[in-house]
Structures are given as structure tokens and as C-alpha cells.
Amino acid sequence: MSTTRKHVFSALLLIGAIAIMVPQHALAAGTASGTTISNKATVNYSVGAVAQTPIESSPTGNSTPGVGNGTATTFTVVNKVNVTVTQVGNATVIPGSTSQVLVYTVTNSGNTAQRYALSTTLNSGFAMNNIRIYKDTNANGILDAGDVLYVDASTFGDIPADGVLHVLIVADTPSSVTNGQTAVYNLIATTVDAGTTTVTTPVGGVPVFADAAGSATGDVA
Predict the structure, then answer these.
(1) Which of 2, 72, 125, 176 is the most exposed place for a label (fewest CB within 10 A)?
(2) Could you tell me the residue range of the domain that residue 41 belongs to?
């Protein structure tokens, strides 16, 4: 499952400001995957005013009264795959400028630690040069010395449930662009199994994809 968000590089003949990231709030992911939940119900009833022997539940049904004659129903919580990509403003650039920045957050809204394979696509407009993806280590919305260049899904490691990955798309502006031109880029985050570079896929109905693939205009729930 993957999701996308778009951002715009706007060409401007004067230096413009680059948007800075705003704080993000974690979303409750729910019960962790792999958790075993067990439940056994007991029915207490009376006939007239006379209390009867309780009957306990069972996955296959139980009609034998008495404590210990029922069986608990158990199930295991599955991996709820849910990723949200959020844009944090656009950027204005000047022709020939280098290392211009677009800011994103990638939030693991599921209930399992996951990794993310990241890529960019040009949605419309002029093409930027030398496009790279970085982890914004200090979440300040600026490319600086501590930021980590993306290589593959293993670069940034596992993102825990409710965890937020701060991401920068960094690119150089062609010297040929003119005032008012725009470059609209998508950031694509594809969910990968924790500890691997393997794209998460359902096997026998597991995991559950809670978030459909996104589009160029936003995240589709």
C-alpha cells in the first residue's frame, strides 16, 4: 500500500521563503498487532425466582451448564497498515538555485512498526534537477548537516506505531525557468515490513490495509 502527497516548487525571480514544518500530533494506533485477545461470556439466568446454573460460551457453542464447561474464544490482532503523508507548505525558488526544500511528514497510523520505501514523481510543470530525499533528523524543515540521505527502505529504519518520519525533498532549480512557473511533485510512501525492504502484502487476508492508495491530490482513506 502506498500513499502520496503533492508539493509545488514555484519559480520566482526574487528569493522567497521556504515553509517550515508545523508540529504534528500522534494518532492512536489501537491494539498492537500480534496481541492475543481472549474472551469467555457467562450467562446467568433464573426460571421464575429460581436461579439456574450458569452457562459459559464456547467458539463452537455450549449448552452444558456449569463452570468449566465453556471455552474461551481467542483471536490475534492483525497488522493494520495505515500510512499518512502530509505536506507542509510549498517553496518559492529562483532560477539556478540549489538544494531547494519541500517538507513532508510520513505518519505510521497503524498498529505495527513499519518501514517506508520513498520516491518522488513529477505531477506537472517543469522538472527540477538532482532530486534527493532526506530524513529531517531535527524536524526543523531545513536541510542541514545532520540530515540523512535516503537510499532505500532500510535507510531510516523502522517507524513505530504512531511514529512520524520527517522528510525533505531536495532539488536544484533549472536556470531556464521563468517567473510564475511551477513544478508539482508527489512524495510516494510505500509500506515495507519492519526490518526488511519487502513491500507489505496481505497473505491469507493478513495484514489489513486500512488506508487505500493515495492520489496526486491527497491521501485517500
Answers:
(1) 176
(2) 36-76
In a domain, 217, yes or no: no
Buried b (16+ CB within 10 A) or exposed e, 5-28: bbbbbbbbeeebebbebeeeeeee
Q: pLDDT per residue over 131-172, tens digit each?
A: 999 999 999 999 999 999 999 999 999 999 999 999 999 999
Tell me the DSSP string of 92-149: EE-TT--SEEEEEEEEE-SSS-EEEEEEEEEEEEPPPEEEEEEE-TT-SSS--TT-EE
Domain count, the chain: 2
At residue 208, what are phi and psi to the nearest 5 degrees?
A: -100, 125
C-alpha gyration radius of the chain: 25
Q: Are 2 and 200 in contact (CB under 8 A)?
A: no
Return d(Cα 115, Cα 136) in angstroms, integer: 16
* Stated pTM of the model: 0.72
Look at residue 43 and tell me whether its pLDDT is greater than 60. Answer: yes
Q: How far apart are CA 193 and CA 201, in angstroms?
A: 9
Same domain, 40 and 28: no
Do strands 46-47 and 2-11 pair parallel, antiparallel, or not at all (unpaired)? unpaired
**42, 141: one domain:** no
Per-residue model confidence as pLDDT tens digits over 10-19: 543 322 222 2
Whether 18 and 109 share a structural domain? yes
Taking the C-alpha atoms of residue 170 and residue 122, their distance in angstroms, rounded to an integer, is: 13
